[in-house]
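To make the argument concrete, we let one protein speak, a sequence paired with a row of structure tokens, as a model reads it:
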Amino acid sequence: MSERLPNPIRGPIIDLSFPHHWQAEILAARPLILPPRHFVYPRAAEEVERGALEVMIRPDAPNAQPFLATCALGFRDPAAPTGFWSTPDPERVCAVAGGYAYLIDTAAPERFAMIPYRPVLEVRAVVAEGLLLFVGHHSILAWGSSGQAWESAKLSDEGVTIAGIDGGVLRGEGWEMMSDREKPFAIDLRTGFLLPASVR
């Protein structure tokens, strides 16, 4: 069976739904002269040789110095998103490079987290619940103001689709290999627990 990916996305995504204390700009290429502060994510430099997303980040704090974030590229498939998102923590930026997602502390750029999905297929801000959602092939991971809030149970054998979010409940579908059909699911966004799919 071929990999089930969402429709291809053209160009980088910029989503600033959450309040944030920084400015960011995607560069067309790495500068010939690197700025004094330059950080590579992840720290294994060999991954960067496949390509990278270069983001110049300027923290809003007084006397804070800008820095260049070089984020290793995951996949060249256009269905794997690339761009940056504000997060529930106003000091943290989420940079995604070909489905590899990095959460970088702009006040201390050496501190970062990497979402374990390879790749992340969709990033969705749910401001009302204070969550940034990362959708993978099999499950969903939620990031809150203090870090990872929850990770769902397995939702699909290959491909998760979000149908909608309403009243703190996320609804979607996941493909089940045994029955070869899409099965609906519902998740309580506060806990990450599955609800009966028929719950309204």
User: Anything to note?
Assistant: Confidence is low (pLDDT under 50) at residues 1-9. Residues 58 and 64 are 8 Å apart (CA to CA). The radius of gyration is 17 Å.
